[in-house]
From TrEMBL:
Sequence ranges of Basic and acidic residues compositional bias: 198-210, 423-443
Matching Pfam families: MOSC, MOSC_N
UniProt keyword list: Membrane, Transmembrane, Transmembrane helix
Ranges of Polar residues composition bias in the record: 167-186
Ranges for domain MOSC: 314-473
Protein name (record): MOSC domain-containing protein
UniProt keyword Membrane, yes or no: yes
Region (Disordered): 164-210, 420-443
InterPro entries listed in its UniProt record: MoCF_Sase_C, MOCOS_middle, Pyrv_Knase-like_insert_dom_sf
PROSITE patterns named among the record's database cross-references: MOSC (PS51340)
Amino acid sequence: MAQTTFFNHYINFLMSPAGALALLFVIPLVFYVYTEARRRNTRSGSRIQGCLRIGLQGKSYLEGQYNSVASQDQTPIVKSLFVYPVKSCRGVELSVSTVTGTGLKYDRLFSFAQLVSSKKQASANSEGISEVNSEVTHQWRFITQREVPRLALLSTELWVPDHRTAGGQQSTRLDSKLANGSSPSGLTYRKGHATENGGHRAEEAPQKQELVDPIKDWSASGGCLVVRFPYEKSGSIFGTTTESVTIKIPLQPSPERAKSKRYTYESMAIWKDCPESINLSNEIEPESLAKLKYFLGVSNPLALFRVDDDNLRAVTRGLPKDRPDEKFKVGFADAFPVHLLNIASVRAVDDSLPGEAKAKGTLDARRFRANIYVSGPVAFAEDRWMRITAGHKRIAQGKAGVAEYHAACRTARCTLPNVHPDSGLKDRNEPHSTLKRTRQVDEGAKPHPCLGLSMIPLFQDGVIRCGDKIEVLEEGEHVYEKMFK
């Protein structure tokens, strides 16, 4: 009887205005908690077969950056390393990285671009009369957080072939024009099996070879880039919900995959250069691409390009004078292969921000999107660095040598650091206004302010690690050479 009375009381409460109001709040809350937990579990549980995710997860060597001070002996130390697989999207923090002549491996390997249409200018005929030219040109042009701040919300993951398992395989290179293709069977073979500790042992006689599909197997295409972004969709019973949209792109597509997906070579404008690049937008499902355009607020056609290793851009400014015959190349980075930044310099800029600035006291070094973050020296000590060593380079027979970097110039700054790396919101003024007020320190760069250094590796194969000491070999005065004159 008591149970019946309680049950009736409970029903009566739910039927009352107070009960209805409680349900109005409780049910959406329960639904949100459930969907969010499901989304997170799905994301954290995702794996790329045959591959291993690289990069720091759940921690950062930049923790404590707001309390960073110069060390007693001011010895420069590599504090943190970042690569940005997709230009202007979120980076991947590493504890160690391979360095090539074109920068840190996987850095700015991809870039989003939009198709820009324009009419040719009117020209004068032989009689000096201006004629209307109706010809329209179309050009893919790279996009960054400068004009599309929400790129900051696109997270990236690097999954590389896991050589500890049978699923790992050395990546293959694209052929010259993606035209030639597959083996007779369309399949290749993996050799060897993983040992219990993750190593490989040589193949033994009765051992069975495992078939590898060069089109579907990620390890056959050098691994996988995963891009994620939160997409708000409407129409659910409780209003707007958010889903995590995932895009998967091969890092080093096999010729078979390139042919199957019908990649194309197209010109993509990046500043004054228009290198032939690989349009691999066919890797993205049309629905996901439409959601991405909506998320970014891009109305023009949108595409994803990959650097073509045979069509790199030439570095033409700030070259080392002692290597006049050497050719230096860069991929989709703005102008130079490597960017270095002193954390103490960021703190000094933070101190100079006006009191009302939102970033005051919390100016995040990640806003400046450096590859190598340095701790130890006093603020702006790096302004005079001309040549440094960091990490080591690989030479013949497994030996290591000193890895030298040439400081091409101070890094000229635009308004991109005004974008908050976590929210994707762009401040109208800061920190760019403060940089213009305090950091117009290079006559060649004016009216642009400068912060950090643009570097050129003077080797083709090296390694750099967090904790490596940096030795300054040469100091001097930089004079920035303008890109556009």
